Amino acid sequence: MSVVIAILGVAVALFFNPLWIAFEQERSAVPAITGYTPNQVRAVTGSILADLFVGPPEFAVAVDGQPVLDAAERSHMVDVRNVLLPVTILFGAAVAVLAVLLATSGRRPWLWRAIARGSTALTVAGIVVGIALVFFFDAAFLLFHRVFFPQGNFSFDPRTQRLSQLFPDQFWTETSIAIAVVGLLAAIAVSVVARRQAARLQADAL
């Protein structure tokens, strides 16, 4: 399980950073949608990300004296932060457990076989999720939000509310597919390496 969480965490972290977000916002024509300049989009997004990952979670960024997010949007972002914190802790714990196992049992075939099984299971799951994202993205996106935000404050009007304008459907579709592809490739690579390492260590023990 630790290897699955570690791979997923790395795949997500690769795309939830200012460089990728700015790239996708440009591809999604966010300045045109919001009416902000590119510099204003970057500044607003940077402030939202800082509040999300560092805090305090105020999300009170303004442009020309006008708040960017309304009360409902700010409340949703607080909920996002409340989900993100335990997930981040879980990722850190998984990486720590994996590091300890590799340090103490890295020469034992059973560990590498376990890593191979976990990454193989993730590969299969990644294929299923990838297909779902390509063909049923809207339903998958809605299901995700209903599971993690059961209070229901996640539906915003893209005509008037900035959160949907800053992170439009194209942003989420392309980012989700990119995460799925990278996670799948990483899982395949880890599975191949782990199986070879297990076989090598088993041969050395004979």
What is this structure, in a nutshell?
This protein is mainly α and 206 residues long. The chain has helices at 2-15, 18-27, 30-34, 38-53, 71-105, 109-148, 162-166, 169-205; strands at 62-63, 66-67. The chain contains eight helices and two strands.
Task: List its salient traits.
elongated, 206 residues, 2% strand, single chain, mainly alpha, two-stranded antiparallel sheet, 8 helices, 2 strands
Strand content: under 5%
Main beta sheet: strand number and arrangement?
2 strands, antiparallel
How confident is the prediction overall: mean pLDDT? 86
User: How much helix, percentage-wise, in residues?
Assistant: over 70%
Based on DSSP secondary structure assignment, what is the total number of beta strands?
2
What value does the Rg take, in angstroms?
A: 20 Å
How are the strands of the biggest sheet laid out side by side?
A: 1-2
Structural class by secondary-structure content: mainly alpha
Low-pLDDT stretches: none
SSE string, helix = H, strand = E?
HHHHEEHHHH
The total of helices stands at 8
The end-to-end span amounts to: 29 Å
Query: How many structural units, i.e. domains?
Result: 1
- Overall outline: elongated
